[in-house]
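re: that chain from earlier
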Amino acid sequence: MAGVIVHEWLEPHGGAEKVMEEMAETFPEAPVFALWDDAPERFEPGRVRESWLARTPLRRHKSLALPVMPVTWRHLGSADADWILCSSHLFAHHARFSGAARIAPKLVYAYTPARYIWNPELDARGSGELVRVVAPVFRAIDRHRAQEPQAIAAISEFVRQRIEKAWHRESTVIYPPVNVSQFSDPNLDGLTDEERDFLDREVPGEFILGASRFIPYKRLDLVIKTGAALKIPTVIAGSGPEEQTLRAYAREHGRDVTFVIQPSLPLLRELFRRAQVFVFPPVEDFGIVPVEAMATGTPVIARKLGGASETVLDGRTGALVNNFEPGELREAYQRALVTAPDAARARALEFDSSVFRSKLATWVSESAGDDRVAANENSLTRA
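^ sequence. v structure.
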């Protein structure tokens, strides 16, 4: 029998949305419940069911909607399902239905306990006065409702430890899916003539690469700092509100820094391939981009803390550092350069979407009972 999938909200882009797509393909008969759906083209008409918040202005203001989310998740209406799979990074794991689904086993795939209330030092949105006032109450509610799931899966060991500390629950690590094939296939190109010309004219022959949204916690300033320490040109790819701040930092502290704004997938893939190393400074719960870099055969320099420390193999597919200080960076760079591209590609394949689908289906089956789960066998075998 089919279950139901619950997700916080659906946006046009985002890592959690990519995971949701794989969940939905693994269990094609399961309807999707979300607070609201801002990407209606993603699934076939009628599959996504929205909450009452979707009919209010709150759908455009997550922080304002935050106080009413817990109670909204407790009144989702009737559903006929044998299991519930919650894709949760805030309060989706609070989900409760009436009807047959009221007594169905609830399973939670957790990206993290809500940073707003549990780790405000990792999320500026948790530093607001209102959130600070209500956080103790929300933590108590959140921990209580986190006892309801029959099983919890975490996106990394880093998050598994956070779940144990916040919710007092054990969890199983199932790494999120990465579309490795769109980066690993050497025959993939897709570059336009304009992009080829840009690569030939503007991008140095040797460089280190940083790529992400231009927001503070991604620490792209440390990529620029790394290039200066190594005395090698730096390429920064992406876009976001911190662009001018990063450009100013590059003028003052950088060494031959090139910005590539909103690169297409083919252009980003080619930048990965050409880079000497990919530099990833943030402390992420998982970190998809380092895996994408490894899929092209490029080594990664990342921190020893966070999800990237679980994907990057020190001395084999890159180098891990305690701090982004010149001496440690120079040593890490030399270690990364001598790694084998084939080892990086092989490591990336361990996080491929097909691996995720297989592990997810097995986990749901074992947690909810074999006779309750209907997975898409085609999706489990698709490369």
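The chain has two domains: 4-177+352-381, 181-349.
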